[in-house]
Specification:
Layout: E1 4-10, E2 13-17, H1 24-28, E3 33-40, H2 44-54, H3 58-65, E4 72-75, E5 80-90, E6 95-105, E7 109-114, H4 122-130, H5 139-172, H6 180-210, H7 223-286, H8 298-321
Parallel strand pairs: 3-7
Antiparallel strand pairs: 1-2, 1-3, 4-5, 5-6, 6-7
Helix pairs in contact: 4-5, 5-7, 6-7, 7-8
């Protein structure tokens, strides 16, 4: 059984908090009251107790208790169910930290269910206190603050990814190519970017569902605030999409640079091999066991030496002028 937070707002003002789950119905009996319940790693009994008391749909409860769901928005007869993700990026470890954050919302209550403390509820509660003038709009006020905090974390994640690939770009064009460990880290981070992009796009579509006027899920005064969250998600998804393109470009650039470096090595080795071959040919010719002009004479030695030096030096300057050495 995880942590429990309970709050009751009456006429847009925080009236009571810290009450047990058994008192939820009693709180809702008061006119002008809506209730916010937050559960962290709840037990099945906790969530089913609330389901029986508030009429949560069994499929939504199953989604909240089961394995991780793709971010989505489900509409039921008496409430909506939003599944989303809290995201952190571990650049050093090449991992994407994820924690499922679900929300059941009705006209008079909202239940948030967090998979773990990877997403603490403290910042959400604090921002609710700082934006208390919006509480008069009911549970959708808490839903807005929850999504706003989640999206702020998305911006931090995309900034971390941007910084990683900025540094990678510098290393690619450095004097030394990426080693095997760095190549592995790069591959892991490519997977992180792809996963992050999929989650953000799915969350954007879920928030879009909240904004549909025919559903009337969100209180009218809060629609501009949800629209702002949606616009932020569009910016993050566009940044993630651009980052995926950048990752592909960097991969192609890295391969091109690797081929370029290999060509340089081949040219240098080939140039030195050509320079060494000339003296070998000359010494082989003058070392034949047949008479030739200058054979066995000092002049022949001098001629062979001059030919070797001149030919080698000439080849060196030719290759050097072509930037092969």
């Amino acid at each position: 059984m995880g942590d429990l937070l309970t709050r009751a707002y009456r006429d847009g003002v925080l009236d009571t908090e810290g009450f047990p789950l058994a008192d939820v119905s009693e709180q809702l009996e008061r006119p002008g009251t809506f209730v916010w319940i937050d559960l962290c790693s709840p037990s099945s009994d906790q969530l089913h107790e609330l389901a029986d008391e508030l009429g949560l749909h069994e499929l939504a409860v199953e989604d909240a208790l089961g394995s991780r769901q793709r971010p989505k928005l489900d509409h039921y007869e008496s409430h909506v169910f939003l599944s989303s993700r809290a995201i952190t990026v571990d650049v050093d470890g090449g991992r994407l930290g994820e924690a499922e954050v679900d929300a059941f919302m009705d006209a008079r209550w909202i239940i948030t269910v967090r998979e773990s403390d990877l997403f603490p509820i403290g910042p959400v509660a604090k921002r609710c206190d700082n934006s208390s003038e919006l509480a008069v709009n009911g549970p959708s006020f808490v839903m807005y603050v929850l999504l706003d905090v989640l999206v702020d974390d998305y911006f931090e994640a995309i900034e971390s990814l941007d910084e990683f690939y900025d540094g990678l770009s510098d290393r690619i064009f450095g004097e030394h190519p990426l080693d095997l460990t760095q190549q592995r880290d790069w591959f892991e981070m490519r997977r992180v970017v792809s996963r992050f992009h999929r989650l953000v796009v799915a969350t954007r579509e879920a928030v879009s569902g909240l904004l549909r006027r025919e559903r009337q899920v969100v209180a009218a005064p809060l629609r501009p605030y949800f629209q702002d969250v949606y616009d932020h998600l569009v910016r993050v998804s566009d940044s993630a999409d651009s980052l995926r393109d950048l990752v592909g470009t960097l991969a192609e650039t890295n391969l091109s640079l690797r081929d370029y470096r290999q060509n340089l090595i081949v040219k240098k080795v080939g140039s030195w091999a050509a320079i060494i071959t000339v003296p070998a040919v000359i010494t082989g010719y003058f070392g034949m066991n047949v008479p030739f002009p200058g054979s066995g004479e000092v002049g022949g030695v001098i001629l062979a030496s001059v030919l070797m030096v001149v030919s080698s030096v000439t080849l060196y300057f030719v290759f050097h002028s072509r930037d092969w050495l």
